[in-house]
């Protein structure tokens, strides 16, 4: 029988025995074997693993010894001695329990271990307005999984979808490379999701996570391709109704392990939830993440006097109430825009608040109401402020504006301009939620 030598490990991949778990739903062979290299005066043991050159095999199966310790007086190693040494070496390996082994409640270890860590669906999309902490929530889940399992950070992958992201990036595709001779060649390379699935398959009792940020910005049907079926919980590998497909580039059989969790995030301000592909909606659970002003309950920013600080929670609640009336809930403002203030000393907060308003909040409102900036001014309460210096957006035409429009033969219309004075006026912020807070010495 011809030998089959693995190029990476140097092992003869023809095993002595193929072992099949008696409770397996399909015949996945575990291998037992040994390879001796007497010319190199060493012996190599080849023990348990799903595949000969798998990462799991490489991590536990290679052990080298001084051949002289096994040789007889003539320098020869008998097969009995080799087998005895191999069996002894195997007893030193960590105990391996099949993920198919049944527990008392008739569930497999794979299922029980996975569900204990994460008692929620395999596929979840967190959606909501910008700045509500969707990505932060997923990061929190990953951190808990890492601490509970005392694991390194290689059990998850993080990608961001965008219009140019493709199936070849996510699953597999033909990519250029450079050989040792400096020649350009093209070969099939695994994408980030396929790599994670292969890794999860080697450690089936531990959860692995695929995080997809801004999932709605990519062409989801094109990126997932045929895998849109395989990610469904009932179609996962080792499940009773599990399916596999033949990948188009490598022609390999592929399935998605049951211990791979997929978490996506999407901003509803970018794209409505109703526009999401129906096939995707059916395979994911959707969890709304709304603005939570209560998280800012104790956040106060010093105002013009110590007796009247700026109440960030009330300010955000009032802006979002008006946004829901003038636009919709999907375009409200998330609490995360202001959480950075919590990390600052009180005397530094107002300057940062002014910058947040100038660089983030006002531009966001101008984008929402680009065709009618009066509404942006209403969200900021400027229509209720009697002091002109407290208005973030000043509406109305100056005499010079009216003169220019009149000479051009155009009708006079109201303009809307930013007011730099308001950014540095604490009463302008208080005036968003309190009319009296905008009352100043100056009157418009």
Automatic annotation (TrEMBL):
One of its GO terms (molecular function) is ATP hydrolysis activity. It holds the Pfam family AAA_5. SUPFAM superfamilies: P-loop containing nucleoside triphosphate hydrolases (SSF52540). Residues 120-294 form the AAA+ ATPase domain. Gene3D superfamilies: P-loop containing nucleotide triphosphate hydrolases (3.40.50.300). It comes from the Bacteria. This is AAA domain-containing protein.
